[in-house]
Amino acid sequence: MLYDVEEDYELFVAPQIGEYSSKKGGASRHLMVNGSSERIAIKIKCSNNNAYRVSPVYTIIEPGFSQRLQVVRDPGEPQVDKLILLYKKTECKNAHEAFYESGEPRNENKRTMIALVTHDRPELLPKPPQPKPTNKPANLTNIYTQRIHRYKPK
């Protein structure tokens, strides 16, 4: 099973896979939802910080609320990477403080993952045909007559 609801009931993340082009790079958006009855502090770690930019890195989500996660990938070699979302229940005002400065034990951190897949596939849709350049001025009469002659049955 790809997603175990019982395990990650407190923090729901969708989609759990981000796909990017190795030639163009790209971006993906993910939704994080706090399904618990307490505040959750989240810290996001990436396996390849040279190729990816993540926003936000630290955040707090109130019970029943959601937060968008933006992941941007630069062009580069095709490979599989991952984002680790560390999260824990907290009463802190600041997510960074919840992970580093609070007296709460670190072993209470739970985690979930987003797979980041960069592929080298060709474009699926062909490029649309480019119109032929003409020396005639572009006006409605010329456009209309070109279309009539182009689609005239033989």
UniProtKB/TrEMBL annotation:
The lineage of its organism: Eukaryota, Metazoa, Ecdysozoa, Nematoda, Chromadorea. This is Major sperm protein. Central component in molecular interactions underlying sperm crawling. Forms an extensive filament system that extends from sperm villipoda, along the leading edge of the pseudopod. It comes from the Eukaryota. PROSITE patterns: MSP (PS50202). Keywords: Cytoplasm, Cytoskeleton. Residues 125-134 have a biased composition (Pro residues). SUPFAM superfamilies: PapD-like. Residues 2-117 form the MSP domain. Residues 121-141 are annotated as: Disordered. PANTHER family: MAJOR SPERM PROTEIN. It holds the Pfam family Motile_Sperm. The keyword Cytoplasm applies.
